[in-house]
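stage 2 :: seqdesign
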């Protein structure tokens, strides 16, 4: 059977890296973003690898957009077998001048990480036009452990509380869905550490001192864990698992 994976948040750095890795393994792809046109450059590049690539818009804060994605993909004659739930929004990670998370971004972050993915994944699981067998959600080390103040020079407002809380909820949603969709659908999570890209050199140096591997993650670290968990042969006995890929951050 043709393997086709939906990747939400595919226009972001992490989604792009995962998509490129899976394309090299022969996966057909459905790339989504709030603005589908932002996925077009990546789609054009990946089609040269000989895989089918579709692009669609998806806004997890919009219920209709979320719950019609399975319909919109089926209308293109595409049967989805796997989903990587990766979408995020930096807009939901704002805090007030007093350092407190305001209700609106807190709720938005929970919707993007938990409520939206839940509704999205259930729509695919219940749609007979698709043949869902595997799901990978994208979590975080901060869904497993709290932030270390030493990394932020004591300023934890730079690590918004809603992010870790939502990722912890996502990790448990993964376990819930692994039970509720068994035995036909395996549901797992990759909890990544911090990636190089949005931080300055001083932050990266502090991070390196706090991580056993002595560095932040690179985009080349992103695809392998997801590919393993999506593999219905290699990971056939793995479900409800949170695979921590954080360079050892959470072991001490």
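stage 2 :: out
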């Amino acid at each position: 059977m043709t393997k086709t994976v939906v990747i939400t948040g595919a226009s972001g750095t992490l989604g792009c890296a995962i998509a490129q890795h899976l394309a090299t393994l022969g996966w057909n792809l459905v790339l989504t973003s709030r603005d589908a046109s932002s996925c077009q450059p990546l789609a054009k590049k990946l089609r040269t690898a000989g895989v089918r690539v579709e692009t669609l818009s998806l806004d997890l804060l919009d219920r209709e957009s979320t719950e019609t994605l399975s319909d919109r993909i089926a209308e293109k004659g595409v049967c989805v077998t796997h989903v990587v739930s990766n979408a995020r929004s930096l807009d939901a990670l704002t805090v007030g001048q007093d350092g407190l998370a305001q209700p609106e971004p807190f709720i938005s972050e929970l919707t993007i990480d938990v409520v939206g993915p839940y509704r999205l994944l259930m729509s695919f699981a219940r749609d007979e036009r698709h043949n869902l067998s595997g799901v990978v959600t994208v979590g975080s080390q901060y869904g497993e452990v709290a932030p270390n103040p030493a990394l932020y020079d004591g300023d934890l407002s730079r690590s918004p509380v809603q992010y870790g809380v939502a990722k912890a909820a996502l990790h448990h949603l993964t376990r819930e869905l692994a039970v509720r969709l068994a035995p036909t659908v395996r549901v797992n999570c990759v909890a990544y550490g911090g990636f190089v890209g949005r931080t300055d050199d001083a932050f990266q140096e502090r991070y390196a001192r706090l991580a056993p591997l002595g560095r932040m993650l690179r985009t080349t670290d992103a695809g392998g864990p997801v590919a393993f968990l999506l593999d219905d042969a290699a990971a056939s006995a793995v479900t409800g698992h949170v695979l921590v890929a954080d360079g050892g951050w959470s072991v001490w």
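stage 3 :: structure notes
- The chain has a mean pLDDT of 96.
- Residues 134 and 230 are 6 Å apart (CA to CA).
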